[in-house]
Amino acid sequence: MSQAKNGLCTLNIGCIVLVGGKCCRLGRDKALEVVGDRSLLERVLSSLGPLESNIILVAAKNYHFPQLNGYPGLRKVTDTYPDKGPLGGIYTGLATSSSFYNLIVACDMPFLNWALLGYMIELSSGYDLVVPRLGSLVEPLHAVYSKCCLAPMESLLKQGELNISNLFNLVKVRYVEADEIDRFDPNHLSFFNVNTEADLETAEGLVKGS
Question: Which alpha helices (DSSP H) does the chain contain, by range?
Answer without folding.
Answer: 40-46, 85-96, 114-123, 150-159, 178-184, 197-209
